[in-house]
Design goal:
- The chain contains nine helices and eleven strands.
- Strands 7-8-9-3-10-11 form a six-stranded mixed sheet, sandwiched between helices.
- The protein has about 250 residues and is of the alpha/beta class.
- The protein has two domains: about 15-55 and about 85-90 and about 170-254, Rossmann fold, CATH 3.40.50; about 105-165, no CATH class.
- About 35% of the residues lie in helices and about 30% in strands.
- The chain has helices spanning about 45-50, 85-90, 110-120, 125-135, 155-165, 185-200, 210-215, 235-240, 245-254; strands at about 5-15, 20-30, 35-40, 60-65, 70-75, 75-80, 95, 170-175, 200-205, 220-225, 225-230.
């Protein structure tokens, strides 16, 4: 295994009842790489992210973070690591949801420091210092005492990104981070993700923003019907000969 391989997903399968959502998907992500996942609604993109972040159990397949094994295929079924190992693995990554998922009764500052203090056992002082740095970086320096309901959608999503970064993850997942936002606020959030990419943050991004995916990604996966139809550099994907890929990108780009 490559030293800089942060994430390996091998031959994931996931059904919900009789409906096959992921048929056989493999993906590896190296340190500092930005990988975007595109494809039509219902193609399995969000389920893939949920399996990768341990929110949904795979039916079959292997899942590794660095040299830690989260799940291994045994006799055609994924067997997960023990509770202590999974707790360690969960500290390896951060996840930003499309609907922000902030605690409405916590201030912005408390939303950000809650997990570092209560999950990682860091001091409140250290966590508040880190939170202030993140808020400044994300253009929210004055918003520490505000509550989520007092913020725009774009500001709430930037707080959600700060909250994920406060845990200092090695890899950050985004599940359609702009789908709940209007176009003006979308630009705010995409600018933050571009900044993270410029700082070599390792990211996996499910997105419908084609131009953004083209600009920011090292690799793009096009997923449909639970399989990877095509994978490659943005140039390769955006000049694909595959009629389905061309049709999808053309439709989404308009």
């Amino acid at each position: 295994m490559e030293d800089n391989n942060l994430l390996r997903i091998e031959h994931i399968k996931k059904n919900f009842g009789d409906t096959g959502v992921l048929s056989d998907i493999s993906l590896s992500v190296n340190e500092g790489e930005v990988v975007s996942i595109i494809g039509p609604s219902g193609s399995g993109k969000s389920t893939l992210l949920r399996c990768a972040t341990l929110l949904t159990q795979m039916d079959d397949g292997n899942l590794y973070y660095g040299d830690m094994c989260a799940a291994k295929s045994v006799n055609g079924k994924s067997v997960y690591a023990g509770k202590d190992e999974l707790k360690k693995i969960r500290q390896y990554f951060g996840l930003v949801f499309q609907n922000f998922n902030l605690f409405p009764h916590y201030s912005v500052l408390k939303n950000i420091i809650d997990a570092p203090v209560n999950v990682l056992g860091r001091s409140k002082e250290e966590s508040e210092k880190k939170a202030a740095e993140l808020l400044k970086m994300l253009g929210l320096a004055e918003k520490g005492d505000a509550y989520p309901c007092e913020l725009s959608g774009g500001q709430q999503q930037r707080v959600a990104i700060a909250r994920a970064l406060a845990l200092e993850p090695k890899i950050l997942f985004f599940d359609e981070p702009t789908s709940a936002l209007d176009p003006e606020l979308t630009g705010e959030v995409l600018a933050v993700i571009r900044k993270l990419a410029a700082n070599h943050m390792t990211m996996v991004i499910v997105t419908h923003e084609m131009q953004f995916a083209k600009e920011v990604s090292d690799r793009i996966l096009f997923i449909e019907n639970g399989v990877v139809v095509e994978e490659g550099t943005p140039d390769k994907l955006f000049s694909s000969d595959n009629p389905r890929v061309r049709e999808f990108i053309g439709r989404m780009a308009n």
